[in-house]
């Protein structure tokens, strides 16, 4: 039975899902810092097996959706869609009257159309230039 649980994401869950989807790993220290800065998270389980996750970081004006991943054997079943919907619901529920905010993300290569189907717009657009990123590695 598939269940969605909020705000219980653990380091072990992140590591297992990242490994299953062939994403690079981070140190436990980095993952703990990331969890400490997470304002909202979703873990999806099939019985007790962790099969998907999503995280949201933000300050009330700008939010960034991070680490949305579904292990391969559970993809194409609407789980990723539900994760994004729940994250958006969280943000909507935390806005006061007359407030607005921006939810941003960096789509995994090839997943842009998935996010567009959920209301996200590619950048650049009429309001924004290209998204930018920088990777830093300490030796």
What would you note in describing this structure?
The chain has helices at 11-20, 28-36, 79-93, 112-116; strands spanning 2-6, 38-46, 49-58, 62-70, 102-105. The termini are far apart. The model has no long low-confidence stretch (mean pLDDT 96). It has four helices and five strands; from the N terminus they run βααβββαβα. Helices cover 28% and strands 27% of the residues. It has 139 residues and is an alpha+beta fold. A five-stranded mixed β-sheet has the order 1-2-3-4-5, sandwiched between helices.
Salient structural properties:
139 residues, alpha+beta, 28% helix, globular
What is the element string, with H for helices and E for strands? EHHEEEHEH
Fraction of residues in helix: 25-40%
How would you characterize the largest beta sheet? 5 strands, mixed
List the total number of helices: 4
Main structural class: alpha+beta
Mean pLDDT: 96
Radius of gyration based on Cα positions: 15 Å
Number of strands: 5
From the N-terminal CA to the C-terminal CA, the straight-line distance is 44 Å
* Strand proportion: 25-35%
- Tell me, what's the shape? globular
Biggest sheet: strand arrangement: 1-2-3-4-5
Uncertain runs are: none
